[in-house]
Write a structure and sequence with these properties.
The two termini are 16 Å apart. With 64 residues, the protein is mainly beta. The chain has one domain. Helices cover 9% and strands 59% of the residues.
């Protein structure tokens, strides 16, 4: 899976086995907001890739 590394400003390929999926929910003034993301670690940097709900649910990555 391809992530963008903000530190080096380049795209990085991460193997599917080390990618985790994360569901982030926060309370706002008008209700709740849920964001879906994939996360991985590469050379000491945490990488995030925000995706839509359909992509999140169809992924076989481990929950993390």
């Amino acid at each position: 899976m391809q992530f963008y590394n903000l530190k080096t400003r380049s795209h990085v390929d991460i193997p599917e086995s080390s990618v985790r999926k994360v569901k982030m929910t926060r309370k706002t003034k008008s209700g709740e907001q849920t964001r879906y993301a994939f996360t991985a670690e590469y050379q000491g940097s945490k990488l995030f890739k925000f995706v839509n709900e359909a992509t999140y649910k169809s992924s076989s990555a481990k929950e993390g």
